[in-house]
Design a protein that fits this description.
Layout lengths: L1 H21 L1 H16 L13 H18 L4 H8 L3 H15 L4 H14 L3 H6 L2 H8 L6 H16 L8 H7 L5 H12 L8 H10 L9 H14 L5 H14 L18 H22 L44 E13 L5 E7 L10 E2 L2 E4 L5 H16 L9 E9 L3 E12 L11 E5 H6 L4 H14 L16 H10 L2 H8 L7 H14 L7
Parallel strand pairs: 1-6
Antiparallel strand pairs: 1-2, 1-4, 2-3, 2-7, 5-6
Helix pairs in contact: 3-14, 4-5, 5-6, 5-11, 10-11, 11-14, 12-14
Bound molecules: iron/sulfur cluster and zinc ion.
EC number: 3.2.2.31
Function: Involved in oxidative DNA damage repair. Initiates repair of A*oxoG to C*G by removing the inappropriately paired adenine base from the DNA backbone. Possesses both adenine and 2-OH-A DNA glycosylase activities.
GO cellular component, one term: nucleus
Length: 536
């Protein structure tokens, strides 16, 4: 392991040297920019920066000491330390950074481990099919990320001789789906390049540290944050520094309920001192009323350019929010509301097992290339009948059988929230008696239940399927009226219908009537007609 570590550090140093060489010119021009900045009237007030180099050194050491003690052991962190091969290390960090975009660490761990086990190198990933990648990604959301990783790996193999880009600039230019933050994170973590990285967590920490309250997505704030973090980043441990900032944002300086009392950089935090000073002033005022002593507290430090400053908040300070006055985000647009008609089409397979019809989504756009039950986006609610007819015609073409809408059975509705869409699936089902359906085309396939659960389908489709199977399996657990058997007509009816089939149904968790759907409808009719019935 020691050998490995020293090799790895060597590797990192090489990376660092490469950057130093590569950025010699840039450094020169950066110095020039700094000189110009001092003359520039629009340079941010020192209230929002770290003007004292001693402060910067202290902050780095406070943060890194905390990180060394408190950091979570995560598979990609372990790989970034133990993997001596620069190419594999860069690939491993790239995969983790893409998976972590918009997704929680806890969710990513499992996916990451499975991914790295299956495709441990960029060459392995390049040799996989997009279908396999989508299948592996299923459930992680934002599916274009997996597709871009796959495209990127193929580019590395075919155009870069299998070598991952080794600088922040080339990562940014060469890899699809890699933006400014991701390139900086990969460059600093896997290659030891001295660059800061600004993600959502870092935005929050920096805005609070330097009381930056203007819209955190505005260009002046974005540039100010990048320049701040590039000044703060530790030249010896850039990757650890960036991860420490993110870790701090994720675990201490959280969006709601930040743990300021446990924060390693509290002494550097302008928001904290502002809140603290306000509280002190308040209590002194109260005491002052009693003993009429003049306040010994200095005025709360503020931005000298306040009023014209592009980094100061435009909204007034809210005492109730405390440090959460920072950062400020523009009001979120409400998600688009959509309704989609979807139909679970099933038939009995050769071995008697049910099979479900799935169609593939187009290669571009939302959920690109994933599989779903035949579906149709509804224009508006009133168009449901018209769309049902259209979907029925589409399914008829797919299976090569003339079907009518009366074959559709209503199952229910499922809501799935995407980041920008509030999607309601209006679920129907259709049971084909005849197995003699058309052979699947490239974009259609029949899958068994277990194959469907493994397939490249979205979480929304999984929810639809769960609703469908739950409806099938409600069985006899429906009547909770409390009446005895002779009085409760529903229970009598159920008993009458299910006497023999019931045991089989409970044993197999499959419907005990002639078809799952007829059973469901039966239950649903009773359920709707009798409020004292419910599906458990
Ligand atoms: Fe965040 Fe509080 Fe730490 Fe400031 S003191 S950085 S607000 S946790
Ligand atoms: Zn200001």
């Amino acid at each position: 392991m020691n050998k490995l570590r020293s090799a790895m550090h060597k590797g990192k140093r090489v990376g660092l040297e490469m950057v130093k060489k590569g950025t010699a010119k840039r450094k020169k021009s950066e110095t020039a920019v700094k000189e110009e900045d001092t003359k520039n009237d629009s340079a941010p007030s020192t209230y929002h920066t770290f003007p004292d180099p001693a402060d910067v050194v202290l902050l780095r050491s406070h943060l890194l000491n905390w990180y060394d003690k408190e950091k979570r052991e995560l598979p990609w962190r372990t790989l970034a330390v133990t993997e001596s091969d620069l190419n594999i290390r860069t690939y491993a960090v790239w995969v983790s950074e893409i998976m972590l975009q918009q997704t929680q660490v806890a969710t990513v761990i499992d996916y990451y481990n499975k991914w790295m086990k299956r495709w441990p190198t960029v060459q392995d990933l390049a040799a996989a099919t997009l279908e396999e990648v989508n299948q592996m990604w299923a459930g992680l959301g934002y599916y274009s990320r997996g597709k871009r990783l796959h495209e990127g790996s193929q580019k590395v193999v075919s155009e870069l001789k299998g070598q991952m880009p080794h600088t922040v600039d080339s990562l940014l230019k060469q890899l699809p789906g890699v933006g400014r933050y991701t390139a900086a994170a990969i460059g600093s973590i896997s290659l030891g390049q001295v660059t800061g990285a600004v993600d959502g967590n870092v935005i929050r920490v920096l805005c609070r540290l330097r009381a930056i309250g203007a819209d955190s997505t505005s260009p002046p704030v974005t540039e100010a944050l990048w320049s701040l973090v590039n000044k703060l980043v530790d030249p010896e441990r850039p990757g650890d520094f960036n991860q420490a900032m993110m870790e701090l944002g994720a675990r201490v300086c959280t969006p709601k309920g930040p743990l300021c009392s446990q924060c390693p950089v509290q002494t550097h935090c302008r928001s904290y001192s502002k809140v603290h000073a306000k509280q002190e002033k308040k209590s002194q005022k109260l005491l002052g009323k009693l003993d009429r002593k003049p306040s010994t507290l200095p005025d709360i430090e503020e931005c000298v350019n306040s009023g014209t400053c592009p980094l100061c908040p435009s909204e007034p300070w809210d005492d109730k929010l405390g440090v959460q006055n920072f950062p400020r985000k523009p009001a979120k647009k409400p998600p688009r509301v959509e309704r989609t008609l979807t139909c679970v089409v099933l038939r009995t397979g050769e071995d008697g097992e049910d099979e479900y019809l799935l169609t593939q989504r187009p290669n571009k756009g939302l959920l690109a290339g994933l599989w779903e039950f035949p579906s149709l986006l509804l224009d508006d609610k009133s168009s449901e009948v018209k769309h049902k007819r259209a979907l029925c015609a589409e399914i008829s073409t797919l299976v090569g059988i003339n079907l009518s809408e009366s074959n559709f059975k209503c199952v229910g509705e499922v809501v799935h929230i995407f980041s920008h869409i509030h999607q309601t699936y209006v679920v129907h089902s259709l049971s084909l008696k005849d197995r003699d359906t058309q052979t699947p085309t490239e974009s259609t396939q029949w899958l068994t239940k277990s194959a469907l659960q493994e397939a490249a389908v979205s979480t929304g489709v999984k929810k639809v399927f769960i609703l469908f199977t739950q409806c099938v399996c409600v069985c006899v657990r429906v009547c909770v009226c409390g009446l005895d058997n002779s009085t409760c007509c529903t229970r009598n009816r159920l008993d009458y219908l299910t006497q023999k089939a019931q045991q089989k149904a409970l044993a197999t968790r499959r419907c005990f009537l002639s078809s799952p759907i007829s059973h469901y409808r039966f239950v649903l009719q009773f359920w709707k007609g009798a409020p004292w019935l419910k599906i458990l």
